[in-house]
Design goal:
- It is found in: Cell inner membrane; Membrane.
- One of its GO terms (cellular component) is plasma membrane.
- Keywords: Cell inner membrane, Cell membrane, Membrane, Protein transport, Translocation, Transmembrane, Transmembrane helix, Transport.
- The protein has 471 residues and is mainly alpha-helical.
- The protein has 2 domains: 190 residues, Preprotein translocase SecY subunit (Orthogonal Bundle); 224 residues, Orthogonal Bundle (Preprotein translocase SecY subunit), CATH 1.10.3370.
- 72% of the residues lie in helices and 5% in strands.
- The strands form 2 sheets. It has a 3-stranded antiparallel beta sheet. A two-stranded antiparallel ribbon has the order 2-3.
- Helix 2 runs antiparallel to helix 9 and helix 7 packs across helix 8.
- The longest helix has 41 residues.
């Protein structure tokens, strides 16, 4: 606790870092405020009344979207779609970069290419928001007809709210970019994390009331659940941070002497100078997102064919994220997508080319094809345990809700996308803050050294001041 207080004092003593943190907190507060501004023509109290009286019948995907938006989805707020359309657009642009030469060229064009990619991402975001906004209003009209005001004509209601939802998503995108540029960085990820964390206290209180009021296990079971939750968080942190290091060495090179003589000296060749990091989970949460999207295909097929979707049918079990068939299929999909996405991200040929440019090599491995094969073999071996661990964390919410009988709102945080995003963003934000602290300490050290040098040698100080008044 003492070290934490000292660290906070260090942060607060740096004006630039303090201003960045305050700006980030202010923009996050604006984002949370928008989650409670209701769309015109919708009675959110009626929606909450139907949700509470009808139980938790919403599909898992909608629960996930509601969690990512901090409850704005079922609040029918202007930020109901949140930043998710932008995330979808970013994924599309990233995948296009793997398949289309034009996008590959933009990725290699430096800052100019990145600006063009950002502009394309924004256009795709608007297009996705228009489609998702229409689907969202259709869902609200079909599921909660009593909540839609009859005083406003349906065309006006549809057109105006689609515009508002699109403007809300664009504004969220702007908030994220401002946090990235002027705040502590990772603005889009921080917005998602803020929405997820906003629903955590309510889920925690709901689970506590369930265990204490209904005496479904009592305080002992609740404490055990908290201990299990802490273990899952630790496992997620280990999965995010685990790295397999491939040691590299730099070849010897010759440098001339300072006096210009023809004799040269050999330099370099030290072991352990650098390494190639291969992350245990290089794919992040993308495999879970892709697998979760595919898990709703069977329900769509059943609806199209008119097949019965009861709890005792295969269609119904594949729609229930607490059932055994759902979790088995979901686990294997996560493992498969982890391999696919890692193969797209980790490029052994690119690593080998970079080693060649740096005049470096992997010990006991020949350059060229052997280096590519070695890196690919290491990445494949690392991906296997990483994909299994990611699949296990992905199905933990279903196990927590189905087997351990934990409340659905709290079970979502026992793994899956929500927990991994929170862990990754929190760790990255801490690294950003540590980076600012390190830069400040380095600057202070240099400044202190200059001041000590001037005090120790006044003659030199006077000469330098005369020659360079500004210095």
């Amino acid at each position: 606790m003492k070290s934490f207080i000292e660290k906070m004092k260090e942060i607060w003593a740096i004006p630039e870092l303090k201003n960045r943190i305050l700006l980030t907190l202010g923009l996050l507060a604006v984002y949370r405020f928008g989650s409670f501004v209701i769309l015109p023509g919708i009675d959110t109290a009626e929606i909450q009344k139907q949700l509470s009286s009808g139980g938790d019948d919403a599909p898992g995907l909608l629960d996930l979207l509601n969690t990512f938006s901090g409850g704005a989805f079922f609040n029918a707020a202007v930020f109901a779609l949140g930043i998710m359309p932008y995330i979808s657009a970013s994924i599309i642009v990233q995948l296009l970069g793997f398949a289309i030469p034009y996008f590959q060229k933009l990725q290699k064009d430096g800052e100019a290419g990145q600006r063009r990619l950002n502009q394309i991402t924004r256009y795709i975001t608007i297009a996705i928001t228009l489609v998702q906004g229409s689907a969202y209003l259709n869902y609200m009209h079909a599921s909660f007809p009593e909540a839609i005001s009859s005083e406003v004509g349906l065309p006006i209601f549809w057109f105006s709210n689609i515009i508002i939802l699109t403007a809300g998503t664009v504004f969220c995108m702007w908030l994220g970019e401002r946090i990235t540029d002027k705040g502590i960085g990772n603005g889009i990820s921080l917005l998602i994390t803020a929405g997820i964390i906003a629903t955590l206290p309510q889920a925690f209180v709901g689970e506590m009331n369930l265990k204490f009021s209904a005496m479904a296990g009592g305080p002992v079971i609740f404490i055990v659940e908290l201990a299990l939750f802490a273990l899952v968080v630790l496992a997620s942190v280990a999965l995010v941070q685990a790295v397999r290091k491939i040691q590299i060495k730099f070849a010897k090179h010759m440098v001339g002497r300072a006096d210009g003589a023809s004799r040269v000296a050999a330099m370099g060749g030290q072991s352990g100078l650098d390494h190639i990091p291969i992350k245990l989970n290089a794919a992040g949460v993308m495999p879970i997102i892709f697998a979760q999207a595919l898990m709703f295909v069977p329900g769509a097929i059943a609806g199209f064919l008119g097949a019965p979707a009861g709890a005792d049918t295969i269609w119904g079990q594949l729609a229930d994220f607490t059932s055994i068939p759902y979790n088995v299929l979901f686990f294997f999909l996560v493992v498969i997508f982890t391999y696919v996405y890692t193969a797209l991200i980790v490029n052994p040929q690119q690593h080998a080319d970079q080693l060649k440019r740096q005049n470096a090599f992997i010990p006991n491995v020949k350059s060229g094809a052997d280096t590519v094969e070695h890196i690919d073999k290491v990445a494949s071996r690392v991906t296997l345990p990483g994909s299994i661990a990611l699949g296990a964390i992905a199905i933990l919410p279903g196990i927590a809700a189905g087997v351990l009988q934990i409340d659905l709102g709290f079970a979502i945080f026992f793994g899956g996308t929500s927990l991994l995003i929170m862990v990754a963003v929190v760790l990255d934000t801490l690294q950003q803050i540590e980076g600012h602290l390190a830069m400040n300490s380095y600057g202070g050290f240099i400044q202190g050294g200059r001041l000590r040098g001037r005090r120790e040698n006044p003659a030199v100080d006077a000469t330098s001041t005369t020659e360079n008044p500004a210095g």
